[in-house]
Amino acid sequence: MTPLTPLMPGSLATVSLEDYGPILILLAMAVTFAVANIVLSLIIGPRRDGKVKELAYESGMNPIGTARKRFNVRFYLIAVTFLVFDVEVIFLYPWAITYANVDPASPEATLFLFRVLFFMLTTVIAYVYGYRKGVFRFD
Amino acid sequence: MDAILDSIFPLSPQFFVGALTAVVMVHLILGTIPLLIYFERKISAYIQDRMGPNRVGFDLGLPVLQKLFRGFGFWGLGQSLADGLKFILKEDYMPKGADRALFTLAPALAVVPAFIGWAIIPWGGEFLLPTIEFFGREWVSGGYASVMVADINVGFIYLLAIASLGIYGITLGGWASNNKYSFLGGLRASAGMISYEIPMGMTILATLLLVGSFAPSVIVEDQVRNGWFILAQPIAAVVFFACILAEANRAPFDNAEAEQELVGGYHTEYSAMRFALFFLAEYAHMMTSSAFFTLLFLGGYHVPFIELTSPEATGFLAVFVKINVFFIKVVGLVCFMMVIRWTVPRIRYDQVLKLCWSSLIPLSLVLVVATSIMLKLGATEWWQMALMNLVLLIALVPTATLLFNSKTVNKKLPMAGSRFSPLREQDVSTAPVSRTALDDDNPFNKAARPV
After folding, report:
1. Less Cβ around it within 10 Å: N or C end of chain A?
2. Residue B48: is it exposed, middle or buried by C-beta count within 10 angstroms (0-12/13-18/19+)?
3. Strand pairing of B137-140 and B143-146?
4. B310-321, pLDDT tens digit by residue?
5. Is A22 within 8 Å of B375 when comparing Cβ atoms?
């Protein structure tokens, strides 16, 4: 088989850090905006304390204990399952760009397609396993 | 001195235009958000058959301005401005037991990603910048530049990465408040947002397969040539729109701040400007995601049959028209989100997650596979893709009802001691016992009883 040619035209040739410069300007503006607003209202706003005022508002009930307690394990399950799928999606991005630039009639296109179908199959197996284990039952 | 200036200048056209776009668009977006809040109030008012804000003008309570405007209310446009000013003057309170650092950091963490996410949105296409020189020095060299903050070739990856960062602000805000409702709201928000990121990523993938590039400018040019992608990938567009609603924590997926269940959710304990930043972040997020949707599915700055909005037009007027077109599309989408918020009831939390994990994710995965097979077959015209979408939809509806058919959705947990499941030997009577209530001749009872 012939060696693969670079498929993303000009992708590496045009990378320069200068392109990212304006993002730093934008970031500086956003951070300044956020910090200035918080500081401004801390300076200008009034300050009054009280025994009842400092309680957390829980629908008018006196708060019982702290809020940093153990919580439902399903949130962890969602996070872990998310990781599986998110990593898969990230791997699929470079593939999608490469695959779209390959000539569809060439044997490489077939190879690329079946490779990624196999890759997706592993995720589908993980999904079915999770489904059977009841990870996606939230009620 | 000259040597230092020589090493910096002339700037490249892309850098100059990018920096200019950043400065202009930040102010434009910050100025649009109060207007959007006004729109939201007006839209909700009209949907609920009210008037909405129509009194507060711009006189700020000053006698001079009151005399000048003669009591003219500007249709209530000053309402958002008054709200914003009021937020600065209110007390910024932190409840006892809150994590001081995180409580302050959280609003900033929410607002910053919402503001830097749109750095790769191509607001105005290409612009032919003339050389800028004065004082005998060439400050900016002329040439073609994209009217966007950063013309980077990994544009979409950047946007996805930044959009996910918004979760931190909300989760940390909920955790730091030391309030159980806030904590639950933060948890719900984080679980919902990370769940909806997966179908969002996959629908983007299905669309990017048609382009073959991450660069936003290339995506718009492709849509100008081959038709908007909402025609080629309608399923992806609908799924993507649902996902950006969930990512921006908007109704019908706004369980993080469900008033009936969680008071205000993650921002229950927030007040003054820190609360305003959360509010601002939500609207900025809506604008960013609408711009994202416009870029991906609605052809960006392009309008069919208008020469000025084609990628070939690079003059100043063309750029001005393109920015306006893009902005009108974005504001239209945001208004559509508002109409959804005030007409569609909030979905229950387990149903939100269920919708994502057992319908949107399989659907978008199948869509990616189908699109790549269509690419292999060489059928990439928009009508062929639309046909594939239609076939997929017709084939998937019966399959989905067979595969994901769970019957135990609304099972009721007994709450011991309540009137529906009383404790043993506990007499729970729900019938009225007072004589007045049982008196049939009482005219009030007759009126209350259904005929």
Report:
1. N
2. exposed
3. unpaired
4. 777 777 788 888
5. no
Helix (H, G, I), strand (E, B) or coil at B92: coil
Domains identified in chain B, total number = 1
How many folded domains does chain A comprise? 1
CATH of the domain at A70: 1.20.58.1610
Structure confidence at residue A45 (pLDDT) = 77
pLDDT in tens, B271-296: 888 888 888 888 888 898 899 899 88
- Answer whether residue B263 is part of any domain: yes
- Best probe of the A interface among B9, B17, B86, B91, by most A CBs < 10 A, is B91
Q: How far B381 CA lies from chain A's nearest CA (Å)? A: 14
- Residue A8 belongs to some domain of the structure: no
B101 contacts in chain A (CB < 8 Å) = none
B367 belongs to a structural domain: yes
Structural domain harbouring B291: 2-52+90-401
Say if residues B199 and B355 touch (Cβ distance below 8 Å): no
At what angle are helices A74-101 and B180-211 packed, to 10 degrees? 10
**CA separation for the pair B186, B195 (Å, rounded):** 14
| pTM for the full predicted model | 0.84
Q: What is the mean pLDDT of chain B?
A: 82
A7 lies in a domain?
Answer: no
Looking at the DSSP bridge assignments, the partners of residue B133 are B138
- The dihedral built from the CA positions of residue B259, B265, B269 and B270, taken in this order, carries a sign that is negative
In a domain, A93, yes or no: yes
pLDDT in tens, B414-423: 777 776 677 7
User: Is residue B216 in some structural domain?
Assistant: yes
Q: How many Cβ atoms are within 10 Å of B275's Cβ, its own excluded?
A: 20
CA distance B69 to B73: 8
* Residue B33 dihedral angles phi and psi, to the nearest 5°: -60, -45
- List, as ranges, residues 12-71 from A with C-beta within 8 Å of B: 14-15, 18-23, 25-27, 29-31, 33-35, 37-38, 40-42, 44-48, 53-59, 63, 66-68, 71
Domain boundaries, position A72: 18-137
pLDDT digits (tens, 9 = 90+) for A22-40: 888 888 888 998 888 888 8
Asked if residue A12 is part of any domain, the answer here is no
